[in-house]
Amino acid sequence: MFGAGGGTSSYREVEETDVVFLWGSNARETHPIFFHHVLKGVRRGARLFVVDPRRTASAQWAESWFALKVGTDIALANAMGREIIHAGLVNSRFIRNATTGFEAYAEAVEAYTLQVASQLTGIDAETIREAAHAYARADRAMICWTLGITEHHTSVDNVLALINLALLTGHVGRYGSGLNPLRGFPTACRGSRTSSIPRSGRSSNAPGASSFRPSTAGP
Predict the structure, then answer these.
(1) What is the pTM of this model?
(2) Distance, CA of 138 to CA of 18 (rounded, Å)
């Protein structure tokens, strides 16, 4: 499922999903064709969350805009993961059948309470909680990102933190749910294959399973 330059979902699927996170992506200006499909989904009732320090053109269409402090993406994602675990919203069947390393991940994110994440990111704790619940409770949900996530010295850990959320909730590997790096040129795709979407997401001792890889770099 992971280890390729592209995402796990088609553009068409974003029209029929229930929740979309644009994380570090101003798709309205940088990927307008894709954003056209996002808007179709929004008009059908999808909830759009934009995570970006800047109030971009994409944020203007969002239900919620997360103006986090630069470099605190991992803290936000880990806090969402912790909240999903503590609220009992994990997809236990998916975790059991399709992943490894959940216990280590749960331990790693335990320190990222909503209050701690709020202090680190500048986002209200209740807003983080609502986003975590929206993502976990959705029947179908997508996380999409681009250079706002990958052009950091913690780029790999940033992406892993987002992948962990999908593994936690089972929002990958089925229609309307997925993880999608938005690319515009071949070298970016190559960068995904070699770093940002690592092949080691596959567990060596459990063929077909994907491993949680805790991300604690940065704040």
Answers:
(1) 0.86
(2) 6
